[in-house]
Design brief:
- With 448 residues, the protein is an alpha+beta fold.
- The protein folds into 3 domains: 3-207, 3-Layer(aba) Sandwich (Rossmann fold); 220-316, Sandwich (Immunoglobulin-like), CATH 2.60.40.1940; 323-426, Immunoglobulin-like, CATH 2.60.40.
- The chain has 7 helices and 24 strands.
- The chain has helices at 13-32, 47-54, 108-114, 147-163, 167-185, 190-202, 424-447; strands at residues 3-8, 36-41, 59-64, 68-69, 72-74, 80-83, 96-97, 119-123, 203-207, 220-230, 235-246, 249-250, 255-260, 263-268, 274-282, 289-297, 308-316, 323-335, 338-349, 359-364, 370-375, 381-389, 396-403, 412-419.
- The strands form 6 sheets. It has a 6-stranded mixed beta sheet, with helices on both faces.
- Strand 7 (96-97), helix 3 (108-114) and strand 8 (119-123) form a beta-alpha-beta unit.
- Helix 4 runs antiparallel to helix 5 and helix 5 (167-185) packs antiparallel against helix 6.
- The model has no long low-confidence stretch (mean pLDDT 93).
Length: 448
């Protein structure tokens, strides 16, 4: 069993606030995840105890909350625990070293990695935190409404490491959790949110990202991600296909958690080790959209399979869809000089799907035009009515329907020639007048 050394001095305000949670909540949660613990509490937080603890053949990590400076850390009563230049034995070369200590990321942790420690995390500036009260039992981070944001973020690293994830995977998950907790804290206390985010930016990883404190069968998550865009519904569906494999083939059984922009979906691995997840997101504007994808295989320690964590991003660039507007039918009716046009048609996209609730402009004539505006219904169908005067002998007119496009759909138009009868009332009147004139002329000729 992998063991973790917890160094928890208890002698002044910062250690009074933080370290009860190390003795209680953190120790308990690590043990729930299958890690043994060696607790160096209060007066036991001294150099000789630390060096003895790491000699345990099962020791795989050192964590805790201690004051530090660029080249070292101190324990109880500011006793020096470790500093640059100390003699580091081979027992240190199997440890992850990641205390919550100011400034140790500048020299101490990089130096330890140079000496052969596989992996470590160090704060390159001061580590700041806020607290609601002075006294804590330390059994639950929710005891302190402000400290919980730091605790839940920081110990994501050690909990994930205890579960079998690599140090690099656990570190990336920890930083994500810091940023998530900062966003949650912003709803409660701006100062806390600022310092949670500040600490995340200054906690740096050193060493081998593939270091693990557990042994088992290495796994790999193979995956592909694509986005299905539905312009009509204004949705993106992020589809993740994948498989969990080992050197010997697929891993069957178990679960995979897929997280996209904080939305989660858990899916079962099929018998051939594959999985599929699909998460749908609504959007308002057709603009560049980015999706942050995390895939977590929790592993199966009973069968020896180690967990795996991968992350990627997928970007959806704004696109517009071609449309086709078609005039299906034009009905005309003439009453004197005025012709009534009833125009029917449909607007569809490139896949022949209806485009609803879009404005269509219908224009009749050349020269002096008549316009009408209408909208497509749920089925993409539109209807418009226009009236326009024409000369008595004109029996045709061009009718054009136009969709001008918007942020999602490209514009399109269609034109057709509409036919209608002449103005017979005027024609007969004119013909009658002509006949009368002709008769009068003929009569006059006879009289002459």
């Amino acid at each position: 069993m992998a063991k973790l050394v917890i160094v928890a001095p208890y002698y002044e305000i910062a250690t009074y606030l933080w370290n009860p949670f190390l003795r209680g909540w953190v120790k308990r949660e690590l043990e729930k995840r299958g890690a043994g613990t060696i607790l160096l509490w209060a007066d036991d937080a001294r150099r000789d105890k630390l060096f003895d603890a790491v000699k345990d053949p099962d020791a795989r990590g050192v964590l805790g909350a201690m004051h530090g400076w660029e080249e070292g850390i101190v324990g109880q009563y500011n006793w020096v625990l470790l500093r640059v230049g100390d003699s580091i034995g081979p027992e240190w070369k199997k440890l992850c070293f990641a205390p919550v200590s100011c400034l140790v990321g500048q020299k101490l942790v990089p130096w330890l990695v140079e000496q052969g420690i596989p992996a470590g995390i160090g704060e390159v500036t001061e580590y700041w935190f806020t607290a609601e009260k002075m006294q804590h039992q330390g059994d639950d981070p929710n005891e302190d409404a402000l400290m919980k944001y730091y605790l839940l973020a920081e110990y994501t690293f050690w909990y994930r490491l205890a579960e079998g994830f690599t140090a690099g995977e656990a570190y990336r998950m920890m930083i994500r959790e810091y940023l998530r907790q900062a966003a949650l804290a912003k709803q409660v206390d701006e100062e806390t949110a600022y310092y949670v985010s500040y600490d995340a930016q200054n906690r740096k990883f050193f060493g081998d990202p593939d270091f693990r404190i557990r042994e088992g069968v290495e796994t790999e998550v193979q995956y592909s991600v694509h986005v299905e865009v539905n312009h009509r519904e204004r949705t993106d569906t992020v589809v993740v296909h994948g498989a969990v494999v080992t050197e010997k083939g697929y891993v069957s059984g178990g679960r995979v958690k897929v997280i996209v922009n904080d939305e989660k979906q858990e899916v079962e691995l099929s018998q051939d080790g594959t999985f599929k997840a699909a998460l749908t997101f609504k959007w308002e504007r057709n603009e560049r959209r980015e999706y942050d994808v995390q895939i977590i295989y929790e592993g199966n320690l009973a069968r020896g399979y180690l967990p795996r964590y991968v992350e990627t991003k997928v970007v959806v660039e704004p696109t517009t869809v071609p449309t086709k507007l078609e005039i299906a039918e034009i009905l005309t009716e003439r009453s004197g000089p005025v012709v009534t046009f009833r125009v029917y048609g449909k607007l569809v996209d490139a896949k022949e799907q209806p485009v609803p609730d879009r404005e269509v402009e219908v224009v009749v004539g050349d020269g002096e035009l008549r316009r009408a505006y209408t909208r497509t219904n749920t089925y993409g169908v539109f209807a418009a009515k226009l009236e326009k005067s024409f000369p008595p002998l004109q029996m045709k007119a061009i009718v054009t329907a136009k969709f001008r496009g918007d942020d999602m759909y490209q514009g399109s138009e269609d034109s057709k020639v509409a036919e209608f009868p002449p103005n017979w009332d005027v024609i007969w009147t004119v013909l009658g007048a002509i006949a009368i004139v002709a008769a009068a002329v003929a009569l006059l000729l006879l009289l002459l």
